[in-house]
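Predict the assembly for these two chains.
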Amino acid sequence: MYLNRNKNTTSWGNYPQVDALSQFIEREKDVNSLDMTKKLIARGLGRSYGDSALSKSIVNLEKNDYFISFSNEGILECTAGVSLESIISVFSTRGWFLPVTPGTKYVTVGGAIASDVHGKNHHADGVFSDHVESFRIFTGEEILECSKSVNPDLFYATCGGMGLTGIILTVTLRLLKIHSSYIIQSQTRASNFEDLMRLFEGSESEKYTVAWIDCLSKGEHLGRGVMISGEHATYDDLLGTKMQENPLKLCKSFPAKIPFNFPSFALCSESVYLFNQLYFNKPSSELDRALTTFDPFFYPLDFVSDWNKIYGARGFVQYQFVVPMKSSKKAIQEILERVSDKGIASFLAVLKLFGKESEGYLSFPMRGYTLALDFPIMEGLFEFLDELDKIVLDANGRLYLTKDARMSADTFHKSYKNVNKFKSVVQKYGCDRFFKSLQAKRLGL
Amino acid sequence: MNSIFILGATSDIGRELSYIYAGKGYSLILSARDKSDLTALKQDVKVRFDVDAETVSLDLQDFENIDDVISSFKGQICGFVLMAGYLGDQQLAQSSKDEAYKIMAVNYTGSCAALESAAKNLESVPKSFIIGVSSVAGLRGRQSNYMYGSAKAGLISYLSGLRNRLQKSDTTVLTVLPGFVDTKMTAHLELPALLTASPAKVAADIVKGQTRGKSVVYSIFVWRYIMWIIRCIPEFVFKRLSL
């Protein structure tokens, strides 16, 4: 274990920033030498947007990235700092993929559990923790094994628990069997929000669905967008194309690190071809089916590393909320109207219909629509978002803690129904004496 | 005879080297001080590359033991990488004999003993190689780390002599001179981003140098010029600098 003082430690939104001392854990035994006099928070690759992985005292696990074992049935055991990117690069060529992946692959498995991340297949396959067999966690006093049957209360408090139950050390998860590293993708235009909802509700049998919304459109075109759906291509889908020779070939499309791994643009010819086909042939109003690779389909934003810097030094917040089915239409239309009236264009607006609610006490998804909007930090923004919070609360919705940097404790307590259950588990295991993030302080957790 | 012995395998660069050589289909003998760290790396390499690695714990301060451990793999190895190092604390080393001794033992005497043993076991092996990782700090002594720097300087001379000696055999000797590298050894230092390489980059440079039969590799390359300039500074000027 070693220390590192980082001035201005910050997460993906570049807001807030804190002068923190990081203790790097490389191995499990390092927990014994942790300085625990100040309350700690675990941190992986720092891809949560707000203050959930921030504190004056941080335990950094990005170097704790070791694979432990893998069975031919797809059960992977690894340490918590292993990134989803590593899992894809090691296992996709062997026919295995992540059962659930968020919109970036630069997150650790520990972080994926703590945020209980979801993907484009939430309606079909649930959240990340639904595919976790077990994990081992350091609660501040001891290391405990957790699963749905062993210490289940700690398991459900940890999934989505934003690191407040301790430091996840190792994880055992089930990977998804795939027959190719290609995705068959369809794009469909929708002329307004109602149209989009119809598309979502009519495509629940598709494995992956997501929509991009044009935030600037108003009136009858309010909420117009493009729905993208997809599924893993089978070997048969590749017949007659050059992809059939090596169906599991991994097309890596960009340099992972700057500054010294110089852009080695390892674009393989297949991915360039497919990328062009997708992005330069505009989707027609008809269903447009095409083959694509993992990176443009799952991780379009990873293509520009450090895209968060476009929002400048003041940073940005991503406002992601979910509202239940029956209040979705009214609430989302109202929020889109407010945003478009306010004239702050969100660079990104992503809509998704979730499946059933997860079991994690602080897990975000519930049955209904979720919308994510990016806002650069500027004067008056937080007051404006407080107004949006009211709309979300009135609709019985909630905000995603992984993206949050500014919600009030009151809003949080009103919207997360299992918060007392969560608090009692944290007290039972004594984790609250050792772990606290800036977010937890702000939310009164 | 398809194994590579990596001494210091659990260091950040050592780990990246293990990946590269495992990916090329070599068997690995992973060596470092800590047995449990080695086991973790062995499992990791097994999952990533389906390569079975052997592990052996070895401490470069344990001078008597070094040759026996390395020689026990005679006939098995075709390559040897010395990747172990100890930066230590210069201030502490000025007052603590133990710290000064440790810096010199790990970076020089122990390292030379290991390389000597490797040379003995590899000189009759066709197309074999020895890689010694020193440091640009060994090219000119500076007040901020001259204990470490002088030990690494000794290692540079040792490697140059060994290369000369093995010139007639089929064993190449590569001296590696990394500049700043973003590793756990330097995590507490503030390093200039533009001059700092990732462990993966240094490992890639090392393997590239080895496969091309190079004698000396700087990583990253710009350090060759930086150190050339630093070595050109006349001593009467240099001694007044606070480097």
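The beta strands of chain B are 3-7, 27-32, 53-57, 77-82, 128-133, 171-178, 180-181, 196-197, 216-219. Residues 97-122 of chain B form the longest helix (26 residues).
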